[in-house]
Design goal:
By secondary structure, the chain is an alpha+beta fold. The chain is built from 19 helices and 18 strands. About 45% of the residues lie in helices and about 15% in strands.
Length: about 675
Amino acid sequence: MAGENDHIVAEMAARIFADLADPQTVNQAGNEAWRAPLWQAVSEAGLPLAWVPEELGGAGASLADGFAILGIAGRFALPAPLAETLLAGWLIARAGLQAPTGAMTVAPCRPRDRIAFGGDDTLNGRATAVPFASQAKHIAVLADGDSGAVVALVAAKDCRLGHGQNLAGDASDTVSFDGAKPVCSTPAPAGLDQRALMLIGATARSVQTAGALEAILSLAVDYANERVAFERKIGKFQAVQQNLARLAGEVAAALAVAGSAADALSQTQAAEDAVSLEAASAKIRCAEAAAEGSAIAHQVFGAIGFTQEHILHRFTLRMLAWREDFGDESWWAAELGRNVARRGGWIGMTWPKQYGGGERSFLERYVVTEEFRVANAPVRSHFVADRQSGPVLLKYAPEHIKADILPRICRGELCFVIGMSEPGSGSDLFAAKTKATKVDGGWKINGTKIWTSNAHIADYMIGLFRTSAPTKENRRHGLTQFLIDMKAPGITVNPVIQMTGQHDFNEVVFEDVFMTDDHVLGEIDGAWHQATSELAYERSGPERFLETFYVLVEMIRAVGPEPDLRSAEGLGRLVAQLHTLRRMSVSVAGMLQAGKEPVVEGSLVKDLGTVWEQKLPNRVRELTAFLEAEVSNRATLEEQLAFGMTVAPKLTIQGGTTEILRGIIARGLGLR
């Protein structure tokens, strides 16, 4: 197959899949009889080992050829380990190992899984959610050896399998190696590490997803042109046309970004940073398109598309399952955010250069933060560390901790979270009950924090804990801040899913978690002032009034250059309010630059800002209610409004409720 161009390979794959793996035929089959003829045909065509050179037992095709095969496989929602065998072949071929016959899979497929290669030449560890492990003869493994990465090929029968399924019902198994002896192994060549495996795996899944999206668009358009309701083909209804137009946009986006990633990996001269950007962007955007496209397609098909008999679910469930393999979109967004921050020097802009900072002004940082927020940039993995955790460490941490952690924050390597709210007390920080008890050499922590954003991806927490009881004279007494290593034994993170379906919030449970004395930050029993000062950083930035800004942008596009009087007046009011909030927020940044602690001023910005951004979606909805139906961005506007109104309730809760903020303001006025 070496030397053949992409479209010839794709045409051959399409013929085989159409003959032996048609989704309707597979869906109606009552057994697995179709599986063996399909695998025999693809094997005879050399497709599974396309990425293995001929001298190592493969077909010697290019990476571009292999991605073309995967795109076609996605269009057929192929329920077979073709992608997995391709990836396994790529891995062992990079290490110069001979390819075996039969189906293979690859491990690990999740970025946090680790497999060890011991001095006795055995494999140990566990890999979760390994696709088709129970149907594979061999597993290609990238393991951690004493002197670096090792590539090993192990027989699946020599491993302990915990059988499982993904959303589509395909095998997704836990593989425990338990001292398994590889068939062969060798040190990995330079550049072949777990990140490289995740990059090509993520690109493979993105290409498959784009192919599946292309298929469901075709199915949906055909159905809309055939299905009759109310004496008209449903494709003639504007609502259906709008939905299909949205679906076409998602398909176009997925095809563009997946194709670009495949091209980048196929070009051997492509820079590593460029490949990382392309693969990460593809996995993020294709996962988003899978979720959005699936929802739209099922809406178009209605009840029939929800049945087991219809083939739509063969595509939608596989796309949704593929999001999890080789890093989900949240993991890749965090990785991409770190890379952007590392290259741009956008983290720690105001910090001393000795810790990796830029020694820039708070106003310069404000400008960058504002642009990130408006562009909805992927900054969540480093934002808290940059905004408030780093400044706390600069002020209160021992020198050796500052020297270790702050440069890593600036490089985008660490994610920090805030551990303040607790069950039953919410924003009342002084009611904290999670206890830190003094023991030899440090402290043991027990209790629970709640609403902890991003705790599931965090490296560290700066938390507020009860170290002694409050006094009658001062209920703020007895609280101490600690730097918490989120990977310490005894910490359990439980997800709290929002009604939007997003996972940001978490419950963090501490059970005898030990922290050494040098992880105490500041004064023991006197952290209440530190905590409230820290919140000035959290509550005053542009992120506190720009979280629903996108609906205002869509409104401006919708009303056009000549809005009617009602729209113009409403838009003018909103812009004036936004400008005022921005001026207030900038002034707080100036106070921080001057070394002040604007606790009351920060509370004012957050109170006014979050109320404004919370009301904004409904106000935009009112102002655009009577626009012409032909407005070009109507579908996007309605989609943004729906999401904005779903997000809105949390905005006056996170970072301190409005009631708590107004209490702080009242204290500043001398009323308490």
